[in-house]
Design a protein that fits this description.
Length: 898
């Protein structure tokens, strides 16, 4: 059974069972905990975590996944893969254990004629969580499994959670017995090579705390709605159903190895050492194409670095097989042809994908030869000296100068019987990173050398900050810097850094943005500096960054420093509002809602906080908003004072996440409602805030939420716009404001119904043309050819359906169908062949190159059906003519591939 058919049967099985088919998500999701999507449930996490209501009670998907924790093991065994497809079915408070077990059993053991996989029920084993008696009973009742083929395992094997507080539950895994020739008797607990896991059913029923039940800790509660999350490995099922030894010999992977055989002239299976290289190429080519397809490009950071490692390992493995010309493009073409039936975007976006791969290969090849030469010299030197380890500085030089990832150096060294001084390499890498971080931090102040700042600090002492009480001060310039260097004067138009003996300007810190304003002096005819930012590059020293806009600023001049009052007041309102929102959240959610970051800007705030329970319900947000605005109406005094850290803690003052405090701390309290350690600026009374409007609440990471809000006049303006908008909608819908949600929902539902009906009518109209197209087939040397342009804008699915329908109407004749549809300056096409045509050597995938050039396109597929896209709709007539010519020339150049 072909892999695409395995995926199709999975989807069809669950769609028939009332599940909504959900397309694979991108490998790149907005999840700070993941480099790549590594499981089918990732795109459904907001529903499992309660962050969003699920739009359907049941769902099914075939999710593309990448796992990169063991890249270096790929190829050494046949079990490791970085790219794979995970088939899953999901229930959000709908069916539970019985339904999951029944659905899985029916698909796994159902006959192939009825749409199942046809596995022998007598060779199926399952494992369950150690105390899940219910699952054991259900496997016996639903599947008729004997107790001896149901094995209990502890939480490390059969309990699943996300690794953080949240939902989790016991799981049950389905295994297939490959037979005694593959290992010992005794089930999965004895031998997981013989008994191969193919499907994991997770019964999400618990709420885990800080410690996971995987390691024996009890859950802290039960979920209000029990959910199902399952994952079936498509590739594992494929190699079992295709009767091959492992994933690398399945129908979608083996063609990449075949291309490597063609390029190298070597045979897979003839040499174990070379077999490792063939497998590296096959796996990494699939991962590389899929990752680039989702928008990642090679780099030296994060996802881009992983991609670079994968691609360079392909090039290196190819060279070890004796292939020295560029290879990535050739392997990418095979991956596209094999995978595009399930992921058509690989065909339509192949130009970009192949361009990225070619550019990376060219860059690497330019340095690889030189790098290998340096490596060989290093190896020779080590061996001549009797050593067995490549020095860390040489590994670092290979990385830094020649772009060798450390794993490549480790691999090459191992081939020479040497180890690598990894600690030495890591130390040099850390030193380089630290230099980069210091340089990045210095860019905030304009340069990386702090000596000029320290000289001022040593001579004049710390900057006296008077901004809590004074927004205007008379000060003296004790330091003047241009481009990081101390200067005696700076003229009009120059960017400067000014250091004062005392200042009213607040330097950015604690989530509060810096003040702005101006510094004026009367010396030398007068000068004026616009202050745009204030930072503290060294503790105790405020650096005012700005530009001289009038006159010439002089070192040691007496100046008038004045803060932009409007901006300061707006920022202070936001900071006081953040304290109130923090207190409100803790009152509503408990002490677990600890601040994890903030931004206090003019008129707006951003407040990050920990929330192990997940999303904050809208009703709770509304209650918090009401409560903090009541505090504003009460017009509490806002008081700031300095005390000891111990005393502040005794008073219940909240210390913020990640902050470091000395013995003396500043406490800011708003009435009896809020009390925090804080060095920022605030209003004098809570009533000065006016109004606080919470705008949104969302996840920004595992267990961390973010609230955004407006304060004061910005909040009032927002509410005024909302009022106008609601009034306009009420007028348009002839409804009272409280009736608008139902009225708008009703209109949207009618629109969706109309869109579905239009889609149905359009599809029927397209398919109605099938008879006329088939009747107009022209005879080309005994082959019926239907080559035509379908209406513009026909989607790919409809174009495939139309081509298949036309092919069916050609009956037993040898026939070729080629249909084209333009959408703007883009073109899609589908080629289908009848069985009789394939018997004459006419394969759809092999016909595409005959005409693709005429439409500026590319594509591919199987012998019976191929598809692709192009960029020249005007070239369709030429493409049809090219196809006719190919058929007239005979089928000698188009042999079906299976």
């Amino acid at each position: 059974m072909e892999t695409h058919e395995i995926s199709r049967r999975f989807t069809d099985h669950f769609v028939r069972a009332g599940h909504t088919r959900v397309p694979s998500a991108s490998l790149i999701l907005d999840d700070p905990t993941l480099l790549f999507v590594n499981a089918g449930m990732v795109q459904f996490k907001p529903y499992f975590l309660g962050e969003a209501p699920p739009p359907y009670p049941r769902a099914t998907s075939i999710q593309k996944c990448v796992r990169t924790g063991d890249i270096e093991e790929v190829g050494k065994t046949t079990r490791h893969n970085t790219f794979f497809q995970m088939a899953g079915n999901f229930s959000f408070g709908d069916y539970f254990k019985a339904g999951a077990i029944e659905h899985a059993w029916n698909l796994v053991t159902g006959s192939q004629d009825s749409g199942g996989y046809g596995f022998n029920p007598d060779r199926i084993w399952v494992t369950v969580y150690q105390d899940d008696d219910e699952a054991i009973r259900l496997w016996q009742e639903i599947a008729g499994l004997p107790l001896e083929r149901i094995q209990r395992r502890d939480g490390r094997d059969n309990y699943w959670d996300m690794g953080v507080p949240g939902p989790g539950g016991p799981c049950s895994e389905i295994y297939y017995d490959r037979g005694p020739e593959h290992g010992k008797d005794g089930g999965p607990v004895v031998d997981e090579d013989r008994y191969l896991e193919i499907w994991n059913l997770v019964f999400m029923q618990d709420i885990r705390g800080e410690q996971s039940p995987k390691y024996g800790y009890p859950p802290i509660g039960e979920l209000p709605n029990k959910n199902i999350d399952t994952g079936m490995g498509i590739e594992r099922v494929a190699y079992l159903l295709q009767g091959v030894a492992n994933v690398y010999e399945t129908d979608l992977v083996r063609p990449v190895i075949a291309r490597a055989e063609e390029l190298s002239g070597l045979k897979y299976g003839a040499d174990p050492v070379n077999d490792v290289r063939f497998r590296v190429i096959a796996d990494h080519a699939r991962s590389g194409v899929m990752i680039i397809g989702d928008g990642v490009t090679p780099s030296n950071e994060a996802r881009g670095y992983v991609l670079r490692r994968l691609l360079r390992r392909i090039v290196r493995s190819s060279r070890l097989l004796g292939v020295h010309e560029p290879v990535l493009g050739a392997f990418a073409e095979v991956v596209r042809d094999e995978m595009s039936p399930s992921y058509p975007e690989l065909a339509t976006d192949f130009h970009r994908i192949s361009a990225v791969m070619r550019a990376e290969e060219e860059a690497f090849l330019q340095t690889l030869t030189a790098g290998e030469r340096i490596f060989d010299l290093s190896v020779k030197s080590v061996k001549q000296s009797g050593g067995a380890q490549l020095p860390g500085d040489q590994a670092f030089a290979l990385h830094d100068t020649y772009g060798f990832p450390i794993d490549l150096t480790l691999e090459m060294a191992a081939e020479q019987g040497l180890s690598v001084d990894e600690p030495g390499f890591r130390r040099l890498m850390d030193e380089q990173r630290n230099r980069a971080k210091a340089d990045a931090a210095s860019r905030k102040t304009g340069h990386g050398d702090l000596s000029a700042y320290r000289a001022v600090l040593d001579t004049h002492g710390s900057t006296a900050f008077l901004g809590y009480t004074d927004l205007v001060t008379e000060s003296r310039i004790v330091g003047l810097l241009v481009g990081g260097a101390s200067v005696p004067a700076a003229g009009t138009g120059q960017d400067v850094e000014v250091l004062l003996d005392r200042t009213p300007f607040y330097a950015e810190g604690g989530g509060q943005q810096a003040d702005s304003g101006e510094i004026r002096g009367s010396a030398n005819g007068g000068f004026r500096i616009e202050v745009q930012d204030v930072q503290t590059p060294v503790p105790g020293l405020n650096v005012h960054r700005g530009r001289v806009v009038e006159g010439e600023a002089l070192l040691d001049a007496e100046v008038h420093a004045e803060v932009d009052v409007t901006r300061r007041q707006a920022i202070s309102r936001s900071h006081s509002a953040t304290h109130l929102v923090h207190a409100g959240m803790r009152r509503a959610l408990g002490d677990a809602a600890a601040q994890a970051g903030s931004l206090n800007a003019p008129g707006r705030l951003r407040f990050d906080f920990t929330s192990p329970a997940g999303a904050v319900p809208p009703s709770v947000l509304a209650d918090v908003e009401d409560e903090v605005n009541a505090v504003l109406l009460d017009d509490h005094e806002v008081r700031a004072f300095v005390t000891t850290l111990d005393e502040a803690r005794k008073m219940g003052a909240m210390a913020l996440f990640g902050e470091r405090y000395g013995d003396a701390v500043r406490v800011v309290e708003i009435g009896d409602y809020s009390r925090e350690l804080c060095g920022g600026t605030h209003v004098h009374r809570s009533g000065q805030l006016g109004v606080i409007k919470l705008l949104s609440e969302a996840s920004i990471g595992a267990g961390v939420r973010r609230v955004e809000a407006l304060v004061g006049l910005d909040a009032f303006r927002f509410l005024a716009k909302e009022h106008v908008l609601v009034s306009q909608l009420s007028e348009q819908f002839k409804a009272r404001p409280e009736e608008l949600p139902d009225r708008i929902g009703s209109v949207l539902e009618r629109l969706r119904d109309a869109e579905r009906e239009l889609e149905k009518v359009r599809a029927e109209a397209v398919l109605a043309s099938a008879g006329a197209l088939a009747a107009g087939a022209e005879d080309i040397d005994g082959v019926a050819l239907v080559a035509a342009a379908a209406p513009d804008g026909v989607p790919g699915n409809d174009l495939r359906a139309l081509a298949s329908d036309v092919r069916g109407r050609l009956g037993a004749r040898p026939g070729v169908v080629a249909l084209f549809s333009a959408t703007g300056d883009k073109l899609s096409f589908v080629v289908a062949t009848t069985e009789a045509a394939r018997g004459k050597g006419l394969a759809a995938g092999k016909l595409v190159p005959a005409f693709a050039g005429a439409i500026g396109g590319r594509g591919g597929g199987k012998p019976d059906l191929a598809q692709g896209g192009g960029t020249n709709p005007a070239g369709v007539p030429d493409a049809v003519a090219a196809l006719r010519a190919t058929l007239r020339d005979g089928a000698s150049g188009t042999r079906a591939s299976g």
